[in-house]
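Q: For a teaching session next week I want to show students how multiple molecules come together into a single three-dimensional assembly. I've collected the sequence lines for a complex. Could you give me the predicted structure tokens for the whole thing so I can convert them for display?
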Amino acid sequence: MTKPTTKYKTSEEVDFVIVGSGAAGGVLAKELSANGFRVVVLEQGPYLTGADMSHDEIKVLQEDLLTNHPELQPNTFRKTSAEKARPQRAVAYGRCVGGTSVHFTANYWRFHEIDFIERSRIGEIAGTGLADWPIGYADLEPYYTKVEWEVGVSGLAAASPFDPPRSKPYPMPPLPVKSSGVLFERGARKLGLHPFPAPMAILSQPRSGRSACVGCGFCWGFGCEVGAKSSTLATVIPTAERTGRCEIRPNAYAYRIATDATGRAQGVLYFDERKNSHMQRAKAVIVCANGAETPRLLLLSANKEFPNGLANSSGLVGKYLMFNTSARSVGVFNEPLNDYKGFTDSRVLHDFYELDREKVGFYGGGGLDARFDLTPYFFAMNGLPPETARWGKNFKAALKHNYTRTMQIHSGGTSLPLETNAISLDPELKDAWGLPALRVTYKDHPDDLKAIRWLNDRAQQVLDAAGAVRKWSRPIAEQEFAVHLLGTCRMGNDPATSVVNADHRTHDVKNLFLCDGSSLVTSGRGQPTMTIQALAYRAADRITALAKRGELNS
Amino acid sequence: MAEHWSAALAAAQHAHAAAQSGAAIKCEFFTAEMAEEVAAVAARIIPTDDTPGAREAGVVYFIDRALKTFARDDQRLYTEGVAKLRAIVRERFPGTQKFSALREEQQDAILQTLDCEPPVGVRPFAKNSVSQSFFETLRQHTVAGFLIDPESDRKGNRGGIGWSLIGRDTAHLFQPPFGHYDEGYPGWQPTAADEVGKK
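A: Of course. Below is the structure for the complete assembly, covering every listed component.
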């Protein structure tokens, strides 16, 4: 493969400038360049390859090889707007070509029909912004299928009785089962539940010149050396570059979307590696910078015409931030599972996807999955039973006994959209480029906490039924840190109550589109990336149609 | 697995021999005396018993390198921490100057008085060296130095000793069966229950 050399001048007006090269930005870059458009992708992080990936926990997790750096780009956090936000790392996201899809776990189930229509199904929930999406599952189904076949998703169709309808089976069989998956399946079935092979964006078979998974087990938080994880770095980005019409421009930190006197976007201002400022001109701008950085960029782009930030006539840019709730139950078994081998997940269950609000007394639902996502150091710090000695011979003995015999059940749940939970600009703290830092205001809704505790209790029952000799839970508390960044520029038909329309076009700026976690109207059940990517494929079709009709120039 | 252990033990013996040879520990940051004290504390955090511990895994070299790289902000914490540790030793065991000269039970007694802070939640992606005690920082560095990928250039987990101890194969390519419970798994089968559960 020759390294693509397409380069555009910043003064040259390309068709699209895309901010961000992650799950959504990568897909849009590939689709639009394949459709004949000239595309520049601005990625704030470096362009790494498989050879740059590492299993060094310090390099990857402590020094943020793949992620936003807390010293260069500090965050502040507060629970409510009554508090002054304090400096604290509140979000982690991918900061490299491929974005968060490089280091994610790669759970890839689809949202269910209910996710798009909860408001009309269950009615208003007072004090929340629960709303229906302007599109439904049927609108997205072809794009879910496209994701599975284009990037490569392993799984078994019709294995879950709760799965939404699908037009095509998975392109390849599920990954092999792990011991945690067998135990989870055994325990869950004893309880009358319906575990199924985890749909994963990891290749179980070689595909399109990419290797199948080699089972190293360093998925969560790490990048894949062999390209078996279906990140955009391993899949659509090389395809986009091969069109000869797409330039991926790394180390380009976007800080402002420029608009002209008529309120149209002209291009994107960014800092290069040396902190020199440039402006890439384009006929249209697409922001795919994630649910935290996308609203931040719009707020940073405030000007005379748009004093509250770009595309913010609704006042909702940055609001309705949703994290997804999550819990971990830990179990220890008699025999070695060696669950560090392989990949993270091999079994999931969706029996509790949609809880009956009348019956349980709260809104919510979620998925449970059998996993092991603790790399050696973090296992030693966080994976041992709570009363274990922290040093000395008993600590050593516990490490020796437990590491191979431990598994976790992860519960992922809903977050209600609350207008008070938000991304905004910190009034005081600045990042290393002198830009206002990202401020996060977040407090879980009581129902979200009730639901995740309820789900975690089920996880404990599954561990018991599977024969765990020890089990415990990691504490569940109000969240102050997130990797799922959703809902902050929500999609809707009404410009007064949403930021983008069903085509991902902002209501206020006709040649500005937003597509990433920020578009989500509801949170799903803890695995959003598949849906973000399906939305991106759909957005690419919509934007292509608009461009071909000449609507972006009007 | 057996051959794995023998390789690790050979490496451990080599490391132990080097550690016992009397040659001063060569460091980038530590003085020989500091290195000796830090190595002695690390050896109580992950002691050597019938299996190798922090000493054989060369944890002190990892920490020395750490203080010149990712943990350079902790240099003062170590310098002051070791000085304070020695002051405690002199106070509690008059006539003794060095922590490393104490018997193991005496060392443990001192470390117990230092380990009074509640554990700080260590979470990937969180910077974990902020406002922590000397002992907690050293504890975390010891564990990291024992369990870091031995193929990394961090100088820790010498010979893969740490991974051998916890039962982690030092290879990075694995095929099923992975563990006891997935051996002989017949493949995923739908059950009658799945049919009943259908909406």
